[in-house]
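Q: Structure tokens for this one, please.
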Amino acid sequence: MRRYDAIVIGCGPGGERAAIQAARAGKRVAVIERQHVLGGTRVNWGTIPSKTLRESAVFVHAIARDRLEGIHFEIPGEITVHDFMHRERVVVQHELELINESLGRYQIEVFLGQARFVDAHTVAVCGPDGGVIVAMNADVIVIAAGSSPNRPPEVPFDGESVFDSNTILSLPHLPKTMTVLGAGVIGVEFASIFAALGIAVTLVDTRDQLLPYLDREIVAILEREIARLGITLVHDDRHAAIERLAGTPPRVRCTLRRAGAIESDVLLYCVGRDGNTRGLGLEVLGLVANDYGLLTVNEHYQTAVPHIYAVGDVIGYPALASTSMEQGRQAMRHAFNIPGLTQRIEQLPFAIYAIPEVSYVGATEEALAARGVHYVVGRGNYEMNPRGQIIGDTEGMLKLLFEAPAMQLVGAHMIGHGASELIHIGQAFLRAGATAYQIAETPYNYPTLSDLYRHAALKALLAVQTGETAAPPPS
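A: Here is the predicted structure, written as tokens:
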């Protein structure tokens, strides 16, 4: 029996940062990872690989959109996804080296195998045959097991014509047509990536509103832009049947409950993800995951068993790498009384790497209106910004929300080139409690997209002068 201060189950972004946070505080930490490599979905199957393909797609789309006289660009007909992703292998290998280096620096012990609870303080590491390789116990245990794509039995996943988000990047060749079932973050990102590569994509949203938690004005721009990419968006529909069609290569027919049959070369199924809680032996703890394999936690990320925490995808929304990292750090700070800044997750930035990018931090206009808050909107449009004109992105927009009468920033929302980077300026202003006056008087390099913050703040101040506040509180 090995003894540790903390055991972390899973070494994706949440587990890795939880382990390092505890180890930096002088705790002896063990990490158990069920995959043959560390890094989780973020490094190996999701974030890094998909964003690598996205950069290739953005490059191809920009060349096609901004074709200049004298520049000729043509994509060979038989190019594969693998051809587009030569950088991915370099980046992934580098990330894996950094993870191993960090864990080694803090003397965190890593065990590969399936974790299974023996009792509330004891975890066994099991091999492929279910046999116990090693057992260990600890005062604190963090479940950061991540999630996997939902794979319902009626969907004929075959790796040829029907894929999930973990296998889609193994496409043997680029298809001409694609159906994407599920218009969450993953579905929207992949739909726009493949559409930018010239593939005719049908995106099926199971909800009546696309990405309902986003600012509606931003979503309206996103819908317009993905339509320009050639994406056909179907709202409020689900599949009734999915069947392979014989051929070389095979094709697939998806019959929707309302819109009827859609035939395409490839189908990507990405309706939800399930927490990786099966096989953990949670029953010995009295913990019960929900129907999606997700665990319930409190504001400190404690489960119903106080010394057992859960972070990242395994607790559900928002299930982003950045928020998972912060959850892991906060869980360990609470467990070991480690001093540090405790941040509200709603003040962390969110990004959707569609084409174009969408990113936001803080409150939405809809949330402020629902609370009856007096607020003022300021917008900075890429088409009025010289850098926006230079890069050819004239549809993007920065939207700032200020609470009146103090005109303090409470939300920033952005769509367009570089949104996932530029939103951090809004995050800094938000955390500093900046006002529209301060943002408008902050100097920015010229020409830059960052200067949109000044324009948006000035627009908000002009709105105050003309009495254009919104959502007066109820009487």
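A few notes: Residues 2-148+274-346 form a domain with the FAD/NAD(P)-binding domain fold (CATH 3.50.50.60). The longest strand covers residues 132-143.
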